[in-house]
Amino acid sequence: MAGGTLLQGASQIQQGKAQKDAADANAAIARQRAKQVYDEGRAKTIRQRINNRERLAGERSKMAASGIVMSGSSMDALAKATIRMETGVQDVARAAKIAADNHYYKAKTTEWEGQLAKKASTVKAAGTLLTGTAKVAGAINKLY
User: Could you say which of 72, 79, 111, 126 would form a disulfide bridge with 27 (CB–CB 3.0 to 4.6 Å)?
Assistant: First the structure.
């Protein structure tokens, strides 16, 4: 009876440790994915800014070739286009950050769940050992 109780308690502790280890591994994957998403977003914003500059340079070239003077309303139009393009870049950067943050928070939550599982298994094992001890004490008490 006592041996079985000890084995059961040890098994519960091992299960909790295994759950924590699995949670830690999953959290590491989520952190890695967060970094990847963030880096991809950064690269995408850089590419988009380069494309925007090229588009604006093309527009300026077309205007110059057409004889449009770069002042007044033509400058206003280019300024507005620049603002719209930068807003698009900022939207991409913000979306990447939100996605990366979500992966990071998932990692933190997964770690927390693993810690709770380990603590819960320790408490459960203690309960099993106490119950087993009480049963052994009761059996001994019946003998005397």
Answer: 111
Number of domains in the chain: 1
Answer whether 1's CB lies under 8 Å from 139's CB: yes
pTM: 0.70
Identify the sign of the CA torsion 100, 105, 106, 112: positive
Domain range enclosing 91: 2-143
Position 85: which residue type?
M
Q: What tokens does 126 get? A: 């203690």
Q: Which residues contact 73 (CB under 8 A, 6 or more apart)?
A: none
Per-residue pLDDT tens over the stretch 53-101: 999 999 888 888 887 776 778 888 888 999 999 999 999 999 999 999 9
Instruction: Calculate the dihedral angle through the C-alpha atoms of 106, 113, 23, 115, rounding to the nearest 10 degrees.
Output: 130
